[in-house]
Design brief:
Length: about 450
């Protein structure tokens, strides 16, 4: 009996794909990374959530987020106001990044789900479904509305000390939009979408292919894993082939992964110094201008008694970048040296650092909101500073560094390479931890 193969994206260990209980998740038996959720037959729930998210997104972009009133003057801002303000103030890099992370990426994420899931639910095919779903895999990490909400709350805390601030309809729409998008993502496993988009005659490699390889003298067949749709591809002796399911180029490992990751991380380290030395914004209040760095902003929140917000900002803007740089550097060094050690824990650390890096955008979003809202001349004005540009660069570069790194190298360099005749294992689930059941090689 043949079984479909599935490879772990983080350690490249091959497994036999099995049926698992509804609501459970399968995990890699070697590194513990999640592999897939229970099979999905219907896609109506994530589709309904995607439509709801789109309606909430329209509201969030059509009405004011906050209304700021001071000395008889009133200012309002929308979700895209910060983008326009950054552009007018001469900070195009900040304008582009805020536009991508708070407007464009969330919109593409929602529309891509609707464009692909609606035809699937109706058992139809429309042009470009595979291309749209491939783009979604690239866009997903850059959708940061949840981080934007934290920046919005920080800005709201700073403004309430010296002015009247009223939350508008868009504020509540954003608060509802974030959990809706979150539910849309966690109720859908992209692997099963790819299976519905796959060509009808597509053949998946199975455990019989491994058996054939083991009984054959040919050494020119190799199994590769598509990093876009996670399909195990029979390479046929070539390390660079097109995935037959999604059309992406498949490599044995990401080209020049370690060198590119190091270059991006070192650039982030260089920018981290001006990000903390130069002001991220200059606040003018009643004719008096005061420059704020990241650390001075945290100190101001502490003096105002806003300890919870101060802790969030300090963690996201100071601790997280430092910890991420140090941990990524340690993972890269250990990988380059081929250290064995706790490989499972090292893989987990990499996965965590990849996830938390985006939360450092809190300060950038906060500055965009304040600069767009507080525009009262000498009475009160907020202007962005070079520190915000440098800090945004740190966040983006560390994210790109983590994305460029191939975590499978952690296991390769430690002598745990996946060979051409691998030993297969049954998956583990969160409901039933199955013992490792190897198929003899």
């Amino acid at each position: 009996m043949s079984h479909r193969l599935i490879a772990c994206e983080n350690c490249d260990y091959l497994h036999v794909e099995e049926e698992i209980p509804t609501g459970s998740v399968a995990y890699c038996v070697r590194c513990g990374s999640p592999l897939y959720r229970a099979a999905q037959v219907r896609f109506d729930k994530p589709l309904a959530l995607a439509v709801t998210a789109f309606l909430l997104f329209l509201i969030a972009n059509s009405y004011p987020v906050l209304t700021f009133a001071m000395e008889g003057r009133v200012e309002t801002n929308t979700l895209s106001s910060g983008v326009l303000t950054f552009w007018r103030e001469g900070f195009p890099f900040l304008a582009i990044m805020v536009a991508v992370t708070s407007v464009l990426a969330p919109l593409v994420l929602i529309l891509a789900h609707i464009y692909v899931l609606l035809p699937i639910s109706l058992n139809r095919q429309v042009p470009g479904m595979q291309q749209v779903w491939r783009i979604l895999a690239i866009i997903r990490p850059w959708s940061m509305l949840d981080v934007f909400l934290i920046g919005l709350l920080v800005a709201l805390t700073k403004l309430t000390d010296f002015a009247d601030v009223i939350a508008g309809p868009a504020f509540f729409a954003i608060c509802c939009l974030i959990p809706t998008v979150l539910l849309m993502n966690i109720t859908l496993d992209p692997r099963y979408v790819w299976r519905r988009l796959a060509p009808a005659n597509l053949r998946y490699p199975t455990s019989e292919d491994i058996g054939d390889q083991q009984g054959s003298d040919q050494q020119d067949r190799t199994l590769l894993t598509c990093h876009t749709c996670s399909m195990v591809v029979l390479g046929g002796g070539h390390e660079n082939v097109r995935c037959p399911r999604c059309g992406a180029m498949v490599h044995h490992r990401k080209p020049r992964s370690l060198s590119r990751s190091w270059a991006l991380l070192l650039a982030a380290v260089i920018l981290y110094v001006p990000a903390n030395v130069f002001p991220i914004m200059t606040v003018t209040y009643l004719g008096r201008a005061e420059a704020d760095t990241i650390l001075s902003g945290v100190s101001a929140l502490v003096r105002a008694g806003e300890w919870p917000i101060a802790i969030v900002v300090f963690t996201a803007s100071i601790l997280v970048p430092i910890i991420k740089i140090l941990l990524l550097g340690w993972v890269y060094i250990a990988t380059a040296l081929g250290l064995s050690g706790p490989l499972k824990e090292r893989t987990l650390i990499y996965r965590i650092t990849e996830l938390i890096g985006r939360w450092s955008m809190v300060d950038v979003f906060m500055v965009s909101i304040l600069a767009a809202l507080v525009k009262l001349g000498n009475i009160a004005t907020v202007q962005p500073g070079f520190g915000a540009v440098a800090f945004c660069g740190v966040v983006i570069l560390t994210m790109l560094s983590a994305m460029a790194f191939d975590p499978r190298l952690i296991w390769d360099r430690a002598g745990m390479q996946t060979v051409k005749r691998p030993r297969l294992a049954s998956v583990k689930t969160d409901h039933d931890r199955v013992e490792n059941q190897g198929i003899p090689s």
